[in-house]
Structures are given as structure tokens and as C-alpha cells.
Amino acid sequence: MMPLTHFDAQGQAHMVDVSDKAITDRVAVAAAHIKMARETFDIISEGRAKKGDVLGVARLAGIMGAKKTPDLIPLCHPLPVTKVSVELSLDPDLPGVQIEATVKTSGQTGVEMEALTAASTAALTVYDMTKAVDKAMEIGGLRVLLKDGGKSGRYEAK
């Protein structure tokens, strides 16, 4: 098992020095879901939410979340994010919303945290926009599906 890189020899948290790493194209994809009551699902799918377009606002929130990741996660590097896409799809079997966020950059470190932040921010926004009718919604399944680029190579969830 590899040592944790965010701790120095004395066990103190620190920002990893990436200055000697090569600039490479990097991508990460993360997913999450939000499970809800059938009535809430119907309100979203029929466009009846009082706060407006739930999925559209959540998509924008996810994009904004990815761009704000270094402001939220203390040891994340600010990165020149070159692409963020957040896809939200209604899943009647859940019932709820499936979320997938893709983030790309050309840089010296990966964008897994940005993709995870995008997916979670989108899920939180769905909750915020519909909590008046369903406080029992459940956010889950937050995970990295794909990470590619850099020294450690490619990772795909099984």
C-alpha cells in the first residue's frame, strides 16, 4: 500500500508538491445518486417544482462546485479546469436522480476531487430545491468511476 501523500515525515498535513510532475491531460468521472419519494420524483419529472428547473439548476451547481473545489477541500491544488460536464438523469427504479460528473484538465495533478465535488454539489442542489416536499431524500453512491492521466495511470471502478 502506498503511503498517504498529504502528510510529511512528522505526520503533519501539508499540500503535496507537484512542481516536478509532468503536465499531462487528465480526466475524472464521478457519480452519485439521490433517492426520493415517488411524489418528489413525479414533481421533478413533470417540471412542477416551485423553485424551477431542478435538474438544470443542479447541473449548473455541479459545474460551479467543481470550479470551487480548492476553496472547499483544504489541500486541493487550484487547477485550470478545461471541461466540466454534469449529467443528471431521472431513474424511476430508484426513484430518484442519477448524477455523473466529468472533469478534465491539463495539469500536474488529477481532478478526482473536482469530479466528486461536482457530483455531490449537484445532488445537494436537488435536495435543496425539493426539500419542502421530501425531507427524507437520501444521497448516496458518491464514488470515482474513472481517473486517467498522470503517473499512476488509469483507474476504472469495477
From TrEMBL:
<dbReference type="Pfam" id="PF01967">
    <property type="entry name" value="MoaC"/>
</dbReference>
<dbReference type="InterPro" id="IPR047594">
    <property type="entry name" value="MoaC_bact/euk"/>
</dbReference>
<comment type="similarity">
    <text>Belongs to the MoaC family.</text>
</comment>
<comment type="pathway">
    <text>Cofactor biosynthesis; molybdopterin biosynthesis.</text>
</comment>
<comment type="subunit">
    <text>Homohexamer; trimer of dimers.</text>
</comment>
<dbReference type="InterPro" id="IPR036522">
    <property type="entry name" value="MoaC_sf"/>
</dbReference>
<protein>
    <recommendedName>
        <fullName>Cyclic pyranopterin monophosphate synthase</fullName>
        <ecNumber>4.6.1.17</ecNumber>
    </recommendedName>
</protein>
<feature type="active site">
    <location>
        <position position="128"/>
    </location>
</feature>
<dbReference type="GO" id="GO:0061799">
    <property type="term" value="F:cyclic pyranopterin monophosphate synthase activity"/>
</dbReference>
<feature type="binding site">
    <location>
        <begin position="113"/>
        <end position="114"/>
    </location>
    <ligand>
        <name>substrate</name>
    </ligand>
</feature>
<dbReference type="InterPro" id="IPR023045">
    <property type="entry name" value="MoaC"/>
</dbReference>
<keyword id="KW-0456">Lyase</keyword>
<dbReference type="InterPro" id="IPR050105">
    <property type="entry name" value="MoCo_biosynth_MoaA/MoaC"/>
</dbReference>
<dbReference type="InterPro" id="IPR002820">
    <property type="entry name" value="Mopterin_CF_biosynth-C_dom"/>
</dbReference>
<keyword id="KW-0501">Molybdenum cofactor biosynthesis</keyword>
<comment type="function">
    <text>Catalyzes the conversion of (8S)-3',8-cyclo-7,8-dihydroguanosine 5'-triphosphate to cyclic pyranopterin monophosphate (cPMP).</text>
</comment>
<feature type="domain" description="Molybdopterin cofactor biosynthesis C (MoaC)">
    <location>
        <begin position="15"/>
        <end position="150"/>
    </location>
</feature>
<feature type="binding site">
    <location>
        <begin position="75"/>
        <end position="77"/>
    </location>
    <ligand>
        <name>substrate</name>
    </ligand>
</feature>
